[in-house]
Amino acid sequence: MRTLIRNAWVLTMDDQMHEYHPGYVLLNEDIIEAVGPEEGPTLLHIQDLIDTADTVIDANDALVVPGFVNTHTHIGMIPFRSLGDDMKDRLRKLLFPLEADMTEDLVRASAQYAMAEMLLAGITTFADMYYFEDAIAEEADQMGIRALLGETIIGQPTPDASDNTPYFGLKMAPAFIERWQGHVRIQPMIAPHAPNTNDRASLESVTKIAIKYNVPVMIHVSEMDYEMAEFKDKYNQTPIEYLDSIGFFEAKVIAAHGIHAKGQDFTILHDQGVGLAHCVVANTKAAKGVAPIKEMLAADVAVGLGTDGPSSGNRLDLFTQMRTFAYAQKTYNHDRSIFPATTIVNLATRGGAKVLSLDHKIGQLTPGYQADITMIERKSLNMNPIFDPYSAIVYSAEASNVEAVWVAGQQLVANKTLTRFSEETISQRLQAQMAPFNAKVAEILGQE
Ligand SMILES: [Zn+2]
Known about the structure:
Residues 63-411 form the Amidohydrolase-related domain. InterPro entries: Amidohydro-rel, Metal-dep_hydrolase_composite, Metal_Hydrolase, MTA/SAH_deaminase. This is Amidohydrolase. Keywords: Hydrolase. GO terms for molecular function: hydrolase activity, acting on carbon-nitrogen (but not peptide) bonds. This protein has 448 residues and is α/β, with parallel strands linked by helices. It has two domains: 2-66 and 368-418, Urease, subunit C, domain 1; 68-355, TIM Barrel. Helices cover 38% and strands 21% of the residues. The strands form three sheets. Strands 1, 2, 3, 4, 5, 15, 16, 17 and 18 form a nine-stranded mixed β-sheet that branches. Strands 6, 7, 8, 9 and 10 form a five-stranded parallel β-sheet that branches. The longest helix is centred in the N-terminal third of the chain and has 17 residues, at 104-120. The site of zinc ion has 6 residues, from loops.
């Protein structure tokens, strides 16, 4: 089955940043077979491709880019969206008590809802850590999206802990990894919550399991000011120095946030091959700070963008992340020329793929790579004119401009609509599961 996407403005994000306008992408099953301009003496004539393809899609001059990579989120948390956004101690007052009552059915409905939202926004790969992650993996399998998934490990009982003891995620990790390892789109991870919410023994067990099974580790690091203070007091180290000192980076680690990274941290992250999932919207909304991405990139640390959970970052699209990244970093560095749009689109595609160690198969439109593709229409008023297509993606585009999406060659979005699922059904499924949650919210807020 070969699908030809033609008459497109193709941004390959390959090593040479090839751009074809008008250009085409030819998909053969799950793989990109060819990419190129529609005109030119040394290339296949477009008519030959049209004649031999099973399906031909006229992109109408849309921007065609590699699918966006969301490097960090918690898709079970849709129920929390817009709840207590401006509240000072929201974590203690709302999140912890409500999370204690989360059910598998609610997490399943939330996960499907979040994946639908991400696909419609052109996200083809995401990395998630939450509870009931085995159920989330089943939902992701059904949905057709690409995912790295890890059960959150934390030193307190979690809603899915059948034995009601701390570190449940650690106990279920081997079986979870064995179940999903080898799946074509789903990759298991192991996901300790943070260095200050796991004891040393737990972190050491995580490293052992990650190395044994060769799976990545995802962890929140240097996100909280009190986390920084705690490690300074206890060990006179940063959390990154501490993790390095206990051999945590012997596994492949994806660090979320890194807002307060400093000094030697950048060298450690680079030398240990740690990827950074940067969540600028969540970080700035919570007034935690602007992460030192200039220093990270100068130290050649792999950086990608992440939405964080829908209670932290609200929106599950990378357009919002790209734009906020530009605003925050340009203002923070007092330099409008820092981080040009090409760099920002790179972070949202190739950069994210590198962070997740998937850069050998996704993140660019190159023959042999997975056919994970996002098409952004330019017929909407907000999309024109386009003098610079990267700039249009970062500053002009919205998730609602995403017209079509392919994951592993399967078209999951067409005409801005899911091809396999009904948005209405997905939404109703979530609403049906939210009644007990809503009742508890009312109860907690009533006690204020
Ligand atoms: Zn997070």
